[in-house]
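Worked example (supplementary).
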Amino acid sequence: MCLAIPAEVTKLLPDEMAIVSIDGVRKEISVALIENLAVGDYVIIHVGYALTKIDPEEAMRTLELQRELSAEGQGAAS
Amino acid sequence: MKYADEFRDKEIALGLAKAIRAEADPQKLYRFMEFCGGHTHAISRYGLEDMLPKNVRMIHGPGCPVCVLPAGRIDMAIRLAERPDVILCVYGDLMRVPGSQGASLLKAKARGADIRMVYSTIDAIRIAQDNAGREVVFFAIGFETTTPPTAVMIRLAQKKQLENVTVFCNHVLTPPAMQNILESPDIRNIGRIEIDGFVGPAHVSTIIGTAPYEFFAEEFGKPVVIAGFEPLDMMQAILMLVRQVNEDRHEVENQYSRAVNRDGNLRAKEEVSDIFELRDQFEWRGLGQVPYSGLKLKRAYAIYDAELRCDMHELRVDDNPACECGAILRGVKKPVDCKLFGTVCTPETPMGSCMVSSEGGCAAHWTYGRFRDHQQRRVS
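After joint prediction of all chains, the assembly is encoded as:
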């Protein structure tokens, strides 16, 4: 039910629909819940709907933070 | 960046595990409940519990929509689907959920009921357009994540002037259930478990934002960390919870900032508030009647409400008395504490709802966790 996946928007269609690609697998989904969507955006898809856009800068920041925390852990006495 | 593999790096996960181990006070017990079935699945799938120190325990919560749907609602849907004029559209993972006396939608379909698995509510609209002479009912279940798609479906039905489509609404809300776990009086007979913090749902929070958890964290003095579904997200969230406990804080923190903000998805929230209103109470499997935890269609949309349009009557069914789903959903018992687990109850023949969905605590443990039981038996 809840195992939604990130996917790239490859084409916007009429009637609030779009084509997305997940590792090359194409799927037609509804984008009725998203505003200002552009080709190239990544969205989280669940039951055939885009729920939200993924913010690339925030994603980078989270990855960097995870690397930092991990490095601190590796440096800690275990 | 594809926003998946990058968050599954083993070396970084090991480092995060070491950080948790270094910061968790060996004199303290840390009991964190992951509310959401997606997190339960991720914890089991990636073996995260094996990476945590013994005193940091994950308790699997009731956040699996299939698991908390009471058997009576399944019976109601089966009864509806057996009517020759009805086509029942359902999400696939509902098909095998047990109703009363071993009934399921799958068996009803085998007996000839017109039940169709749909991927999306858009499919249900198309089926209604293609079957003008039949009554198309969408079996709507799920938390805040699946409610907006149901709202969009009703808006589309209105726009396309479809008169043969209705919704059997079973949508439920996350915050009341979290509250119920901590304070409900009717759970005393099952017992209660102490919880030191919550991993907040990922995709529910993309819709509702982080704000609804603020009251909860304040009122109950429990830390909440909203986390993504990837293993590194989970490990980072657990580290953030350990830090909050150590520093005696109870705040709402957002680990999943790439997809969640404070206010959530305003458009989705508007769609939902236009069409739905709160029920006074709704039954959850394992939690009983939870006040203001379910949604129904507003009176203005009564023509799309299957319960009214199809004259459906409420059915109440007691769960199999040997099934421990209720206690497992609330984290009081573990799957292996249930005598049905792994004998008569497996993912192929589920007796209780926790075994039906891959997000259920029992199914996750059956698929990914049983080797641990053998190890523990060998040790003890």
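Two points are worth noting when inspecting this output. The first strand of chain A starts at residue 5 and ends at 13. Residues 56-75 of chain A form the longest helix (20 residues).
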